[in-house]
Specification:
This protein has helices at about 80-85, 120-125, and strands spanning about 10-15, 20-30, 35-40, 45-50, 55, 60-65, 70, 90, 95-105, 110-120, 130-135, 135-140, 145. With about 160 residues, the chain is mainly beta. The chain is built from 2 helices and 13 strands, in the order E-E-E-E-E-E-E-H-E-E-E-H-E-E-E. Helix content is about 10%, strand content about 45%. The strands form 2 sheets. Strands 5-6-1-2-3-4-7 form a 7-stranded mixed sheet, with no helix packed on it. Strand 12 (about 135-140) and strand 13 form a beta hairpin.
Length: about 160
């Protein structure tokens, strides 16, 4: 699941089987865990919900307790998403692989397992975007990263 694909997903309140709003944006911590998600709740404006209080599927966010929704006022946020999207990624030899185009979430949708790298429209169309596990990426400065080489198992 791509982090960017969460925007505008419906928010489903399970106890009464109702769509109560949609996802506005996700805030990631420095540890690449989802801190909270900001929601647009029908008729109530913006609310936020902590990572432990929802379930994500590819089609919706599911919540079971409206009491877990907290007031959200637009303030300064320091999300890793905003800091790292667009960072250039290089391999060990200095070859430019592309830029970080999105983050990839674990199956439960609680944290990031990898990054999606775009090399541009034509290379992406021909070869597809590259997915690299987070543990193979090193951010050595604020604007670019180094991707560790893939290790191959000997047969």
């Amino acid at each position: 699941m791509r982090l960017n694909s969460l925007k505008n997903l419906p928010v489903f309140y399970q106890p009464n089987a109702e769509i109560i709003g949609k996802i506005d944006h996700v805030v990631l911590g420095d540890d690449f865990q989802i801190l909270y998600i900001v929601l647009e709740i029908n008729g109530q404006g913006s609310k936020m919900i902590a990572h432990e209080d929802f379930q994500l599927t590819s089609e919706s966010m599911v919540i079971n307790d409206l009491g877990k929704l907290k007031s959200y006022s637009y303030g300064e946020e320091f999300s890793v998403y905003d800091k790292k999207i667009g960072d250039m990624v290089f391999d060990q030899s200095g070859k430019e692989l592309g830029w970080v185009s999105d983050f990839l979430l674990t199956q439960n949708g609680k944290c990031v397992w990898g990054v999606e790298i775009s090399a541009g429209t034509i290379p992406d169309f021909i070869s597809g975007r590259v997915e690299i596990p987070l543990e193979k990426i090193s951010w050595l400065n604020p604007f670019s990263a180094l991707a560790a080489p893939e290790r191959r198992e000997k047969s």
